[in-house]
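quick one: N,N,N-trimethyl-histidine bound model?
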Amino acid sequence: MSMSNPASSNSSTQFEEIENRLQIEHLLNAATLSTSALTEKSDVIAGLTQKPKSIQARYFYNDYGSQLFEQICDLPEYYLTRTETGILQECAESIAELTGACELVELGSGSSTKTRILLDAYDQLGHPLRYQSIDVSAGILELSAKALLADYPSLQVHALVSTYELALKQLKPSSLPSRILCFIGSSLGNLKAQECEEFFAQITKALQGGEYFLLGIDLHKSKDVLEAAYNDSQGVTAAFNLNMLNHLNQRFDGNFDLTQFEHLAFYNETQRQIEMHLRSLRPQTATLRALDLTIELAAGETILTEISRKFDLNRLQQELQAQGLKPMHVWTDAKEQFGVLLCRLN
Ligand code: AVJ
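yep, here:
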């Protein structure tokens, strides 16, 4: 390597320095991919051949879908991200004080924007900064890890390309005195009640006694506020929903015609969940060649693409407690739109 050009030697040193603090690991590699690809295919086929039809919410997140989601977070109607950010700014210092030095592990880390609030709090208390980010999207994972390393000179990052399930199965004991597993952004809302319970059980298995679980969840509120958040006036949420068909087309060699579907989102008050659907505008067929699957849709027929559950803080605390995840602290905003819970494993 040439050291003659001061500018380039400077930037390459900086580059090497960042690489030294970064470890990237792919769990979705050839060995595990064959089985996960199989499950994936059968999940898509099962969802599209049952009545009513459905597709799993994680198909929103190809590269374009992740970009659209970042746009959603900034929409005036989408109060969730803004409100959770405000709560984290209020409580981050208490969290860092309560837990002491901690390795931060985050499920579904995405752009890691809100994580910075926590990193700052640990940093201000003089705690070492160690962060394990976990996401299925390798692109956003690597980009945000590098951005964090550039901004936090003493941070160590272990980025894991993985599903939640695989990652939780192979979490190694923390090298710091404790660990905090973060699952913020109300992603829990995508899980049905039964799946939620199974997920909490996986968390308690992955953590050691005394370690922490930080959970961010959207709360039940008026139908108007909720429905506006999922039917924004700029149509970004509609584009996000429709992009799922694009993603399936790309991935499974399909021919869904996006112009023949419309976005539908409403609050199901009995189930306390937003439901997003794609509604067929006319009778039509679509084929996913890689799956050897042709489906028929009647005019007006819907495909369920997401549930987004809205929680009750008391009930959720009981559920966590029942699983051995003891709620230590709960924070909300003044309007009680969103909640952040710090739990400790018994
Ligand atoms: C990322 C699952 C929390 O449910 O609000 C945003 C995804 N869907 N707009 C949510 C989403 C439509 C989001 N979560």
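The first strand starts at residue 22 and ends at 26.
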